[in-house]
Design goal:
Elements (H helix, E strand, L loop, with lengths): L2 H12 L12 H18 L4 H5 L3 H9 L3 H9 L2 H10 L3 H8 L11 H18 L11 H11 L9 E4 L6 H13 L6 E6 L2 H13 L7 E3 L15 E4 L11 H11 L16 H9 L8 E7 L1 H4 L6 H11 L3 E6 L12 E7 L9 E6 L5 E7 L2 E4 L2 H13 L6 E5 L4 E8 L4 E3 L3 H7 L4 H4 L11 H14 L6 H8 L3 E3 L21 E6 L4 H8 L8 E2 L5 E4 L3 H4 L9 H24 L1
Parallel strand pairs: 1-2, 1-4, 2-3, 4-5, 6-8
Antiparallel strand pairs: 5-7, 6-7, 8-11, 9-10, 12-15, 12-16, 12-17, 13-14
Amino acid sequence: MNRFQERVSFIWSIADLLRGDYKQSEYGQVILPLTLLRRLDILRHPGGLAFGKLRVPGEVTRYVARFPAQIREIFECFCFAEQLARLHKAGLLELLLQRFGEIDLRPECVSNQEMGYIFEELIRKFSEQSGETAGEHFTPREVVRLMVQLVFDDGAATGQTLYDPACGTGGMLSAAEEYATERNPSARLEIHGQELNPESYAICKADALLRGHDAGHIAPGNSFLDDAFAGRRFDYMLSNPPFGVEWKKAEKQIRQEHERLGFKGRFGAGLPRVNDGSLLFLEHMLSKMKPDGTRMAVVFNGSPLFAGEAGSGESEIRKWIIENDWLEAIIGLPDQLFYNTGLSTYIWLLTNRKSPARAGKVQLINAASFSRKMRRSLGAKRNEVAPEQIEEIVAIHRQFSESRYSKIFHNEEFGYRRITVERPLRLSFQVSPERVASAGAKFQSAVTHVNPQAIYRDQPEFEKALAAAFHRAGLKLGRTLVRKLSEAFGRQDDEAGIYRDSSGRPIADPELRDCENVPLREDAAAWFKNAVTPHAPDAWIDDARTRIGYSIPFTRHFFEPAPQRPLEEIEQEILSLEDEVRGMIRNFKTA
C-alpha cells in the first residue's frame, strides 16, 4: 500500500471510534473538520501544538478562533463547536485528538496536491457511506472524470479559470485540476465555485484551502439570488446542478432580471417552469463565457432535452443555444449511475469555440451501454463506467463520425414550426324556442315573425330574414347589431356555409383547431398542400400563431426495434398452445 492510501486508511480507521455514538452518515461531520484542523495546526506550528495540548472543547474552540475569518467560517459551517461538545460528552474528544496527533501531515511529507487528494478521497468515501443522501452533493467520480476529459480536450494552461455554480463538495473542481496536471504538470487552474448547502460549501472550501488555492474563490449562497462572481468570465465550467428543483423562492428576483435586463442579464432567453430550474443554471453559466472561447459540461436529466412546446421558456432557451451554435454534443449516460436517482442522465457539452468541422452541427452519443455492474450497490447506484469505457466515449466524441453510438445533425434538424391549422366555423340558424330563449326577452316578440321551422345554412340569408322580422315588428337595428344578435341563433353544422366576420373573412372554429410540428428544414406550404389540403380543402394556416421551437428527441434517434421472430417459430408456438388447450379440455371432460 502506498503512502497516500496508508494515510487515507489511517484517517478512515479513526472514524470507527465514532461507531455507536454517531450514525455512519454523520462521520464526515467530525472527521473532515478534524483532518483540516490537523493540517492547519502543522502548517501553523510544525510541532503540532493543538493536538499535543488540547483536551476539552473550550480549548479547541479558542484555538480555532485565532485562525483568519475565512478559515473560522469553515468550522462554523461544520457546526464544529457543537460537534466538540458532543464528542466530549461521549468521552471521544481526547481520544480522537490523540489519534489525529499520530498522523504526519507535514508539508515536506504531504504536498498541498496530495493533501487535496487525501481530503477528496475521504469526501468520496463518506459520501458513498451516507447512502441515499450522497447524490445531493456528490457526483460519481467516473462521471466527473468523463466530463473533465470531454471539456479539457486541449489540456489547460497555468492561469486558466474553472467555475462551478453548484459546486457541492468540490468534486468537479478537484477532478479537473487533477486531470489538467496529468496532461500538463506545469498547469495550474484557478478554481471558483459557489454552493448553497453550508456543510458542502465548508468541505469544498476546506478542500480548496488544502490544495493551496485561494479559499476566497469558493463562495456560499444561491447562485441565482446572490451571484458571487457577477461579471466574471471563465475558460472552463463544469456542473451537476440539482435535478428538477423548483426555483419558486427566487422567482421574484429572477423574473425581474429577465424582464428588466433581458439579454443584458443572465436569463434573457427565457424562463423554464418553476418546478425545474435546470436550464436556469445553464443560462447562468452561458452568461459567463469568455468572448475568445469557453468550454463547459453540465449534467441534466432528460427533461431539458424536450420539455416545453414551441414558445415555452424551455424551448426558447434551447432555440437560443442552438441558433448561437453553442451546443457541441450530448452524451446519454447509462442508467443507475447516480446515488439518489434512477433517471436517465445526459452530459451537455457546450462551447463558443467550436472547431470548423463541428460548426453548425451537434453530435449525439449514446453511451447507455458503456457501464459495468458494481460489486456492491450504493443507494440507487448499481452501475459504474470503467476507465477504459470513459476512454472509448471520449474517443467517439473526438472522432466526430457517424456510428452505432454516434449521430451527427445540423442545428436546424432540432428545430420545428408549431403550425396552427384552422377550419372554418359553419353555423346553421333557426329561431326554434330554445334558441329564442337564449336571445333575450327584448327581441322575442320580433323574432316570432321568422318561420320557426326554417333552417338557414347560409348566414347572410338568415340575417336578411332577421332584419325583415325586426322591420315588421317596428324595430330598426343596425347591421352590426343584427349580426351580433344572429349569433344567438347559430349552432354548429358541418353542412352549413362558412361563418364570416364583417370583412368577409372566415371565422375559425376553435373545436376544429389543430396544431402540428413541421421540421424547419421542410417547406411549410408544401407540407400543408400535401398533408392537409387533400383532407380539408377549406383549412388554412394561422400565421400569427406560428412559433419556432427546438427539442432534442435523443432516444428516438437511437431507437432499435426488437427483431421480429421467424414465422416458423411463431407457428410452432401456436401449434404447441393448441395442443396444450386440447389437453386441458380433455382433462376437464374426464374430471
